[in-house]
Amino acid sequence: MALHTLNTATDAASCFAALRTEDTLLIMDSAVYLLAQNTASWDWSSLPCPVYVLLEDLSAAGLVLPEAVKAIDYSAWVALSTEHKQHVAWY
Amino acid sequence: MAGLDAAMAAGAFGQDVSVLLRGTAVFEFAKGQCVPATERHVGKTLASLPFYDIESVYVDDTYWSQVNPIDDLDVTVICPAGMGELIAAADHVLSF
Hints:
The structure holds 2 protein chains of 2 kinds. Chain A is of the alpha/beta class.
């Protein structure tokens, strides 16, 4: 039960492939641009676990939130950290 | 390198440590690396892990086929799904 934080798009493919159903993915920093590229072509709901994006980074990039992704603030991120056994940073 | 230092410290204190190199980090195992005298050689440090009771070293298969690895290397090659399993089996994960 791991919380995966994805900071850059470089590692996205490996990160997505390592996700398990009980995990959670949080997209942040420059990785938020993945949402822009993929809104039309990428099916976020096809990932095996819940997908979140850090609201502050999403807003800073001026992007629209895809339907299958939920935007959260820093407090919610802290809550996610406490709910998961492991944390994996992909950057 | 900071990651290896953390792994070696944990190993020295009797923790059950696994090391995973992912992405381009696997090139640290390439033969013929030339490191300036002022810096530490990551590949050689990796080879010394068994002295710290770290026997489990994994490499991500994304770039591994492009690496010409140093001799007598004892590593397990895993796919991204294997990484997910490895992470799930760990009590703590430190990312560097």
